[in-house]
Amino acid sequence: MEIRPTTDQDLAVFVDTFHAALGRFPETPTEGAGVWWSALEMDRNLLAMTTDGRPVGTAGAYSFELTLPGEIVVPAAGVTAVGVLPSHRRQGVLKTMMRHQLSELRARRDFLSVLLASEALIYRRFGYGPATHTQRLTVPRHRATLALPRARATADTPAPGSVELLRRTECDEILEEVYDRYRRAQPGALSRPHRWWALRAGQPPISPAPRYVAVHRDADGVPDGYASYSVDEPDTLTVDETIAPDEAVSTALARFVLGHDLVSQVVFKHVPPDHSLRWQLADFRAGRVSDDTDWLWVRLLDVPRALTARGWFTDGELVLDVDDPFLGEHDRYLLTVRDGEADCVPTDREPDLSLDVSDLASVYLGGTAPSTLVRAGHIQAHRQGAAGLADALFHGERSPHCLHWF
């Protein structure tokens, strides 16, 4: 078997092979409509070929930026389109492709890769760990009254903004600009490169699927938030995503969609687990949570670079014993944090925590407390207080959340 990089001439073969691995057929592009694979970067994709030249597996990668705690934006490879034909599964094809891909990412000097896992059991063995979570929130219209705590007005209270209703086709630039400002401040968020918007590659609101967009404008008329939605199912308004820089804008957009006439319920498809809307409802039980799931999975390709890249909010010192069985590596690092910056160097000191690289990935963005993984048996703490210190160190200023589908 050969693992080889692809070129632009391989696009049709790559797309057909990946769809065959899923048991599906590629959709037929129509004029003016985008398909997800139009944004593939063919110089970053791989094909697994048999000795007689037949393609049996695919693996791709996008060039994204990931926002880390501290509003630090770094490059990250977005792994995508991983599949093996049913005829060649459980023969080592996937393992060989993933090892080849990780080696290539390191050669490109990438220190982080991310993916959305189709199955939770597959990618942990390759060193990936779930790092952000998302859920669906459904609110019946007749129980959607908001009862916000009364805030004291001050001289610093911002002037109220406004909400404008537009069609998806009327606001390309607004969506792109507002999302880009949002993702730079939101830990766990990925960039949406301009070519994705231009090619309309992805899910709504990137795709050309018909949508209404509630655009929030600040007191100066500048767009600073939006909610993309449709009324597809009978009497159900579904919000694809809400982009807001702060709680005031988020609340204004929620109030707008919850006040829509002729629907019986509003479904917010993609909200973080600590979203404030349930607490803003007069009837707390009105907000029904479902589809609580992992979303972005992270892989650390260079532990010292990854740990020194993010922002930190507590001073401290930990010795981490990190096992990476898939790549056959086992290293011990001294992590020292002072004044928001970290130093991470090899050490022979006794470890405070022993953990798999996939568990380090899960705590990396601050969305999972190390002590949770200690209690779950994933991380071993070697001294009293080590888990608590790790919690304080890895905790971020905001919970990580990722909306982007790829």
Overall structural domain count: 3
- The DSSP helix count reads 11
Structural class: alpha+beta
Which CATH-level-2 architecture of the largest domain? Answer: 3-Layer(aba) Sandwich
User: What is the rounded distance between the termini?
Assistant: 28 Å
The run of helices and strands is: EHEEEHEHEEEHHEEEHEHEEHEEEEHHEH
Global outline: globular
Strand order of the largest sheet: 1-2-3-4-5-14-6
- In the CATH hierarchy, the third-tier topology of the largest domain is known as Aminopeptidase
CATH class of the largest domain: Alpha Beta
Number of extended strands: 19
Poorly predicted tracts of residues: 152-156
Please give the radius of gyration in angstroms.
Answer: 23 Å
CATH superfamily of the largest domain: Gcn5-related N-acetyltransferase (GNAT)
Share of helical residues: 10-25%
Q: How would a crystallographer describe the biggest sheet?
A: 7 strands, mixed
Mean pLDDT: 95
Beta fraction: 25-35%
